[in-house]
Request: fold
Amino acid sequence: MSNYITEIAGTPTGSQLALFLALSAAILHAVFGALQKGRYDPWLSRGVIDLSYGIIAAPFALFLTPWPEPHMWLIFLGMVLIHIVYKLSQAMAYSLGAYTVVYPVVRGIGPLVTVVVAGFVFGESFTLKQWIGVLLLSLAILSLAVVNLYGSEKFQRKELYFALYWAALAGIMVAAYTTYDAFGIRLTADPFTFLAWFFFLDGILVFPWIALARWQKMETTPKIIPLIFRGIIGGFIAIFSFGSIMIATRLDSVGEAAVIRETSTVFAAIIGWIFLKETVGPTRAVLMGLIALGAVIVEFGG
Reply:
């Protein structure tokens, strides 16, 4: 499988597979968001999910994939640090603001910054049509946050400002980890070595311990079995979602993969409408259509 990915990278076949993987990542990310939406403390959810995928990845990292090249250890260190900042900022945003407001801000900023940074790091260039698609998609996602804000119940203005600050930082960190990890996965001979060690290190080092400390300070703790079950399901989804987008960036344009992934906001709304019985409404439907249109323009406007 590793040899096949290396062989088709940069070819039309690789581009088609990258598109499929990016769309798969978008759908899985939407499922992941619905799974952790509002039921548990975000720090606990993150810690249990991280520990789950760390344990799942351990045998692959230690025994089943080739050992990382010596130069990869510094790459892994930078990778872990970037993801720590991302997850801290995301958890802070979720703690202070409504999910439906915070999530679109994070996802709307990410692709725009990623396209710019990928241009400097990988020498990628977008046509005018593609830039129009990126702006259309990002503005439509951010507009979803505004619509959801004014359609929500009362909110504290001071908390909202802090929530938006952390959400914006999380969006920038999405761009940072997408670009950095795409750089890292291209430096190793076997992309699955990179993925296995990413999930192993990222899963066990920080957030499980934060979650444990938070659990010990809680006066009333949630039932442990449902939390663990949710963490295991979330761990598998995270592996397939992040793994898909990383392989997509190995095969083709980092910027295009990042933009396609953010159609997850559309899939999240569809999941909310079908399974969670949430109201979409005409305004949200139009914005979701614009998000999809922006992604199509980016993919076919090159």
